């Protein structure tokens, strides 16, 4: 299949050896011949806040894997999101994880040698949220104000910090708070911050709830897409948040792709099954969150700068019409 990039070769690791043995015992053709039940293969999925998209997507994917892959025990890990998820997959703290593309180094062979891709899943849109009555109407209005730029270890933190820098609001120009999504929503509602950033697929449930109870304004970020592309990578694109999503005035904002990533040493046969179910159960995943319904085989293979795991690449090649 054109466009499918794979890693050239992988060094055997202790995790690879263990997963290969466990998976061989767990797959149906082998498991049927065994008298004793095999030790389950653990698949930990690093997600994010319980009220954000990664978690809903991950919970649904875990349920599908537990139901349809014999011998697998999948579970989600609540995290600060993208940057922490990549670190967990790299270090062996999770087998799968979700991340924004801008979190990844442009040279993954050096910075992320143990992390490869299963699929591009959807785009994250950067929200800058304030109250409906707030005087904050542009990014420039954040000067001197209290703003949550996302939790430590989050993709939001990386994107928001880059945006503030290109907008000339670096350093002490903004009073920055490092709060996760739920803490940011509470702080804005209680008047402890003036605005917050959050990067997520539409709709973000916590922002929906805030809009329904408090009333919000989204700040337009469209003018900062090109400066971000110029100063960083061309991963950033322009996307709209229509009024139908949160009942607020429509805005244009900054978006970047989201990937499902996997440890490079997870066996090919298991990753192939994960990829198959990710693509074939899109309707079920979309019922958990609409963002999952935007996946397609055509877009899934576009995972630069990460190569595809060989198991994922094998499934995409086999599924080509």
* Shape call: globular
What letter string, H or E per element, gives the SSE order?
HHEHEHEHEEHEHEHEHEHEHHHH
Total individual domains? 2
Judged by helices, strands and strand pairing, the structural class is alpha/beta
The average pLDDT score comes to: 90
Biggest sheet architecture:
10 strands, mixed
CATH class of the largest domain: Alpha Beta
What's the architecture of the largest domain, going by CATH?
3-Layer(aba) Sandwich
**What is the C-alpha radius of gyration, as a whole number of Å?**
20 Å
Strand content: 15-25%
Give start-end ranges of low-pLDDT stretches: 28-34
First-last Cα distance: 10 Å
Report helical residue fraction.
Answer: 25-40%
Number of separate strands: 10
Q: Which fold does the CATH topology of the largest domain refer to?
A: D-Maltodextrin-Binding Protein, domain 2
Number of separate helices = 14
CATH superfamily of the largest domain: Periplasmic binding protein-like II
Protein name: TAXI family TRAP transporter solute-binding subunit
Keywords: Signal
InterPro entries: TRAP_TAXI
Signal peptide: 1-31
């Amino acid at each position: 299949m054109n466009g499918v990039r794979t890693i050239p070769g992988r060094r055997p690791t202790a995790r690879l050896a263990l997963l290969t043995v466990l998976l061989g015992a767990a797959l149906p053709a082998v498991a049927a011949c065994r008298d004793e039940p095999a030790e389950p293969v653990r698949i930990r999925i690093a997600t994010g806040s319980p009220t954000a998209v990664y978690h809903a997507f991950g919970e649904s994917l875990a349920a599908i894997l537990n139901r349809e892959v014999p011998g697998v025990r999948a579970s989600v890990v609540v995290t600060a999101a993208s940057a922490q998820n990549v670190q967990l997959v790299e270090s062996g703290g999770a087998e799968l994880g979700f991340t924004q593309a801008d979190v990844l180094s442009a040279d993954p062979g050096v910075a992320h040698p143990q992390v490869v891709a299963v699929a591009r899943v959807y785009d994250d849109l950067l929200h800058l949220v304030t109250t409906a009555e707030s005087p904050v109407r542009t990014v420039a209005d954040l000067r001197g104000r209290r703003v949550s730029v996302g939790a430590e270890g989050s993709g939001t933190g990386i994107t928001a910090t880059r945006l503030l820098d290109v907008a000339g609001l670096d350093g002490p120009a903004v009073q920055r708070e490092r709060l996760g999504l739920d803490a940011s929503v509470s702080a804005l509602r209680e008047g402890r911050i003036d605005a917050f950033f959050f990067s997520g697929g539409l709709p973000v449930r916590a922002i929906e709830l805030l809009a329904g109870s408090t009333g919000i304004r989204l700040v337009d970020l469209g003018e900062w897409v090109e400066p971000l592309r110029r100063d960083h990578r061309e991963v950033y694109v322009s996307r709209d948040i229509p009024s139908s999503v949160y009942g607020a005035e429509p805005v244009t904002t900054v978006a970047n792709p989201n990937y499902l990533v996997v440890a490079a040493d997870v066996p090919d046969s298991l990753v192939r099954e994960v990829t198959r179910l990710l693509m074939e159960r899109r309707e079920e995943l979309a019922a958990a969150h609409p963002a999952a319904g935007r996946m397609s085989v055509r877009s899934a293979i576009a995972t630069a700068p990460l190569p595809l795991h060989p198991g994922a690449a094998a499934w995409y090649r086999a599924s080509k019409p």
